[in-house]
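agent: user wants the structure for Outer membrane beta-barrel protein from Imperialibacter roseus. delegating to structure tool.
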Amino acid sequence: MRKFIVLSFFVALCFLQAKAQDVSLKGGLGYAMQSEKMGVLLGARVGITPKIDLAGGFGLFFPDTYNNGNGTKVKSNIWMFDVDGHYNFTPGGAVKLYPLVGINFTTGKVKINDTKTTNTEVGLNMGGGLAYSFTSKIDGFFEIKYILGNADQGMLGFGVFYKL
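agent: tool returned. relaying C-alpha cells verbatim.
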C-alpha cells in the first residue's frame, strides 16, 4: 500500500508541474477481457515533451452480483489504477499514434454471503493507442493494452480527452 501512495504522490506532482496547455482530462469506457467486465475510465494526460506524454487514470468496473444456485450470494468488483508513458507518432493531420508502457495496480473484491476477500496485484502495461483531434479542445482515443503480472488481462478503452 505504501508503494501505491508514493506512486500516486509522484504522479500528482508530475501533473502539478505541467503547464495548463499540456494537460487533458480523460473520460471513456473500458472492457477488461479476462474478467469480461465493462467499466468507466477516468484520468489525465500530461505532455512532458511534444513526443512524450504521461497518462494516469482509474478504471472502475461495474460490479457483478449473482446467486450460484444453492442460496449463496456472490458479489465481485474490480478497479484499476494505471500510470503509462506514451511516445507519440504524428503521421499527419489530426491523427496521433502511440505505443505505451507503464504500471498497473488491479484490486479485486469478492463477497460471498458475508465473507469479503480483497486482493491487489501489480502488473506491467504494454500496448498502444490512437488519438484523433476532433477540435482544438477534444481528442477521441482508442487504446489496447495487456497487463502482465499475476492479474494478466487484456484491456480495450475508448473515449475522449478534453484539453484544459
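agent: one observation worth passing along. The radius of gyration is 17 Å.
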